[in-house]
What we know:
By secondary structure, the chain is mainly α. The chain has helices at 2-12, 14-22, 28-49, 57-65, 70-82, 95-114, 121-138. 68% of the residues lie in helices and 0% in strands.
Amino acid sequence: MEDTIKKTVSLIGGPARFARKKVTGWHPIWWACWGVFWILVVWDVYLALDPIDGNTWSEVMREASTLNPLFPWLLGVLLAHLFHFRDDLKPIFDRDAASTLMVAITIGLGVIGIYGVELTGWSMTLLVILGMVTALLFWPMHRQGQWHW
């Protein structure tokens, strides 16, 4: 039984293991995060200074979140991944399997959003919390004195 579980977890982790081998030594997520950060800062400053009300990135993102569960989910996942409370956390099972499951859940929520699920304020908050809990279980940042991706 234990051997079957190990084989199943290894099989689930195959796509993440393949992707990690392809980007070893190159940190695309790190560059993407910094790029998105600076784009949002410049965009927010520009929009805050123009005469139109309600068009800053945070207001636009909240409005978009009512129509797609992907945005609050990703916010919760990234918050738990980047700002978790313990340095020695590890995924509840194999790292590659956990990464593959996180990607699958994210794609699933993106597909659900395409079909027009409308969220309220509380359901958005619940989805952020669900994303945080899932990221703590599947994708904690195990700090080792270097960039973790």
